[in-house]
Specification:
Number of strands: 9
Strand content: 15-25%
Number of helices: 8
Radius of gyration: 22 Å
Distance between the termini: 24 Å
Order of helices and strands: EHEEHEEEEEEHHHHHH
Helix content: 25-40%
Largest sheet: 6 strands, mixed
Shape: elongated
Length: 277
């Protein structure tokens, strides 16, 4: 069984919405016409559930309605710009263009945003498996992989190209041996009960330079073809992990540095990094 952890948040957060805005007709749920800035083409409900942004000159404006109270922080209620700038940010909703109502990023990706220098920093995060030797268990955490900057230029919203920012979690040779044992055990299995765990664990080891894990990851579908013919979800996860490994290998080949993420930033590892005393 995998254990899950929240990222960078050590305090329980309660988000309290205070919305007094009305549409021109005075009724909730009626789509508005755009009026600059932050006169969004969204209903009152969407102004709460989504995260609309607008551009004023060279500044991105957060137009989302509501305030946030963080229990135990000692801070008064924060508006959304203050909240996203804080260490408590999260749960803002899907980013949309206030002027058009269009989503800024396609697909249901796990994206975390922060606000800096009048712009939004948008990090796409992907679940990674990390072996915690202290508890002899695999832990699943979300790690930043790609970054976009949402910025304003002369009153228009712009989005930068993806930048590859992945720093994998560190794993040592003992973990390589453990995943090799798991893989070989799965080869002998007829039930394949644990096979869905392997693509993520192989990816982590491969990104730590284990060539055996890398080869097994890239040939995983061929080796277990019968299983994948009946398990489309695991197949998609495997293909995503394979693409990520190829992208990371390409990054290193072009002169990128192999750096490891500081796991102490994660709540689960706050009191100790796996394998270290």
């Amino acid at each position: 069984m995998k254990l899950y952890s929240s990222i960078f948040v050590t305090t329980v957060i309660v988000i309290l919405f205070s919305c007094n805005s009305k549409t021109k007709s005075g009724e909730q749920g009626v789509t508005k016409k755009y009026s600059s800035p932050c006169g969004c083409v969204l209903s009152d409900e969407e102004m709460i559930t989504l995260c609309p942004v607008d551009a004023l000159g060279d500044s991105i404006l957060i137009c989302k309605v509501g305030t946030n109270s963080v229990i135990g922080s000692g801070r008064p209620p924060m508006n959304w710009t203050e909240f996203i700038k804080s260490e408590y940010s999260g749960g803002e909703g899907i980013l949309v263009n206030c002027k058009t109502g269009d989503t800024l990023f396609p697909g249901l990706y796990n994206r975390v945003i922060s606000y800096r220098n009048k712009s939004l920093i948008v990090d796409e995060r992907i679940p990674f498996d990390v072996y915690d030797k202290q508890k002899s268990a695999w832990v699943n955490i979300d790690i930043p992989v790609r970054r976009n900057i949402v910025y304003a230029f002369k009153g228009e919203i712009r989005i930068s190209k993806d930048s590859f920012i992945l720093k994998p979690p560190f794993q040592d040779k003992k973990v390589f041996a453990a995943i090799s044992y798991e893989y070989e055990k799965e080869e002998q299995s007829t039930t394949h009960y644990m096979i869905s765990n392997l693509p993520g664990r192989l990816l982590t080891c491969a990104m730590n330079g284990d060539t055996v894990s890398a080869n097994r990851l890239m040939n995983f579908q061929n080796r277990f073809s019968e299983y994948f013919s009946q398990n489309e979800v695991t197949k998609k996860i495997l293909e995503r992990n394979q693409r990520l490994y190829v992208a990371y290998s390409d990054y290193l080949a072009k002169g990128g540095n192999r750096e490891y993420i500081d796991l102490s930033k994660f709540v689960y590892f706050k009191n100790g990094i796996p394998g270290k005393k």
